[in-house]
Write a structure and sequence with these properties.
- By secondary structure, this protein is of the alpha+beta class.
- It folds into 2 domains: about 10-170 and about 320-450, FAD/NAD(P)-binding domain (3-Layer(bba) Sandwich); about 180-315, no CATH class.
- It has helices at about 20-30, 70-80, 95-110, 155-160, 190-205, 230-235, 275-300, 335, 400-410, 410-430, 440-450; strands at about 10-15, 35-40, 110-115, 120-125, 130-135, 140-150, 165, 180, 180-185, 210, 215-220, 250-255, 255-265, 265-270, 310-315, 325, 345-350, 375-380, 390-395.
- The strands form 5 sheets. Strands 1, 2, 3, 4, 5, 6 and 19 form a 7-stranded mixed beta sheet that branches. Strands 10-11-12-13-9-15 form a 6-stranded antiparallel beta sheet, covered by helices on one side. Strands 7-16 form a two-stranded antiparallel ribbon.
- The structure holds flavin-adenine dinucleotide.
- Flavin-adenine dinucleotide (FAD) binds near residues 21, 40 and 151.
- Flavin-adenine dinucleotide binds near residues 21, 41, 55 and 179.
Length: about 450
């Protein structure tokens, strides 16, 4: 594109594009390697889905000892726990406190943050990226850098740079369902707990429900027997809820907020393209309407919600999956199901395949390898964007097939991928070689040297 008239905002070593979980971890690790790092984010805070889409908790790795493959995760856990913003494990957290902690760690590492700024174009010179075009209140400007890390979740920068990608379920062409999450406060948890107990007794079903006021939990999905399913069916029959409301409903407690519950819904099964502005607009509008309806449902059909109110609706729509970028290695469904290991692994996980609204038949896939190590690994090469010399990708849009992405999209893997990309970008600059020539083994060794734990 013609860019000569746009002013250059700055030139820096490493440009991290998008400040979600992967972006924050990439920026911190690159800056802690002594590099000049700019992090560009469209919203006014970092954390992305984990904070602005209110996504919690951090899923377990499902590996014995729950190794996080990230030294920054330890720092985040220690800081957020010391602020009273998480449980001891750090997995259950308050999204506002996480925002503060990630921001503090970025600033302490020397990362320059640029909020309220959207990346809308890429400036390429041959096989390299020269810069990104940013748009904000100051107008259109260029940010130049030596290495770029695409942490936009949707792979915006890689696609603008011309990289290939896949998107959606290859069987249906559709993306994973998306959700607009929210928080309700002012709940009398003791009364709600007693109500849950009475529902367990009335229905004779004690599934996916915890009446303990300190740790309230409840879930309903389209399939299976659930304690609260009967209540949902009644409300649907009375016109108080939509049929879709019972396809996916999940409520859980938030550390440090005694009268609040966080909701992993409403979920959308048709309007699901996170790269389509109309879908994003529609889900925000309809989501808010459905959330308001759900509050009325709680008040009418349950106990403990008499003084309850909606205290937060996520400003960011929760996108589970959109584009996945063509990387030097594309992690396949068979890789994760067979628990494949890689020499250049930067993350390990045994989190299951997690595609909402779909039960899977694995008969046509490889069988899990019985090597005494029940987990799969993500290779560094899945972060190296194919065809562009100075671009890495991290987070939920890294190089993976749809089914593999449904497992690695959870926060611990996204954190590890960002951390690895930041270190790799710094190594690339240090050694004067492109990211594709960086040895992933060196990246993992550096992560481990700094305190990241991996399963043996
Ligand atoms: C509804 C839902 C429930 C989930 N449940 C769980 C769970 O219980 N546990 C778990 O561990 N994981 C869960 N996940 C998965 C996990 O939270 C996400 O996959 C992960 O947080 C994604 O992190 P990311 O950094 O890759 O992307 P994102 O968090 O999407 O971050 C991308 C960032 O880039 C910014 N950005 C995007 N485009 C641009 C642009 N062009 N210019 C500037 N900025 C841009 C965005 O504003 C955002 O801050 C869930 C996800 C969803 C959506």
């Amino acid at each position: 594109m013609e860019t000569k008239n746009y002013p250059v905002y700055c030139k820096t070593d490493i440009v991290v594009c998008g400040g979600g979980t992967a972006g924050a971890f990439a920026a911190i690790s690159a800056a802690e390697q002594g590099k000049k790092v700019l992090l560009i984010e469209q919203f006014g805070s970092i954390g992305g889905s984990a904070t602005n889409a209110l996504v919690l908790p951090i899923m377990s790795t499902h590996i014995e000892g729950n190794p996080q493959c990230s030294y920054i995760s330890k720092k985040v856990r220690n800081r957020i726990f010391s602020y009273g913003g998480s449980d001891e494990s750090g997995r259950w957290f308050d999204p506002i406190i996480l925002k503060i902690v990630l921001e503090e760690l970025c600033l302490e590492a020397g990362v320059k943050l640029l909020y309220h700024t959207f990346i809308s174009e890429v400036i390429r010179e041959g096989s390299k990226m020269k810069g990104v075009l940013i748009s904000n209140k100051a107008g259109l400007q260029i940010v130049e850098g030596n290495i770029f890390i695409d942490c936009t979740g949707d792979g915006d920068v890689s696609v603008l740079a011309g990289a290939g990608y896949t998107k959606g379920n290859p069987d249906t062409g559709k993306n994973q369902p998306i959700s607009l999450r929210y928080i309700v406060s002012g709940i009398d948890k003791a009364a709600l707990g007693e109500f849950f107990k009475s529902e367990i007794k009335r229905t004779g079903i004690n599934i996916a429900i915890n009446p303990d006021p300190a740790n309230i939990y409840a879930a309903v999905t389209a399939t299976g027997e659930w304690t609260l399913a009967d209540l949902f069916k009644k409300a649907i029959a009375n016109g108080d809820l939509a049929e879709e409301d019972r396809y996916y409903f999940q409520a859980f407690s938030i550390v440090g907020r005694e009268d609040a519950l966080a909701f992993n819904n409403p979920e959308f099964f048709d309007c699901v393209d996170g790269t389509d502005p109309e879908h994003l607009t529609k889900t925000q509008i309809e989501g808010r309407q459905r959330i308001f309806k759900q509050l009325k449902f709680f008040k009418k059909y349950m106990k403990g919600f008499e003084k309850a109110y909606i205290s937060e609706i996520a400003p960011m729509v929760g996108i589970r999956e959109s584009r996945n970028i063509e990387a030097e290695y594309i992690l396949s469904a068979n890789d994760i199901i067979s628990r494949r290991k890689f020499d250049d692994a930067i993350c390990q996980s045994n989190y299951p395949v997690d595609i909402h609204g779909k039960s899977l038949d694995f008969t046509n896939y490889s069988k899990p390898v019985d090597d005494g190590k029940p987990y799969y690994e993500i290779p560094y090469r899945s972060l190296v964007v194919r065809g562009i010399d100075n671009l890495l990708v991290a987070g939920r849009c890294l190089g993976a097939e749809f089914l593999a992405q449904s497992s690695l999209r959870v926060q611990h893997s996204v954190r590890a991928s960002g951390e690895a990309a930041g270190i790799a970008a710094a190594y690339s600059l240090e050694k004067g070689i492109p990211p594709r020539s960086v040895d992933g083994k060196d990246v993992r060794m550096e992560m481990q040297k700094l305190g990241a734990s991996f399963a043996e």
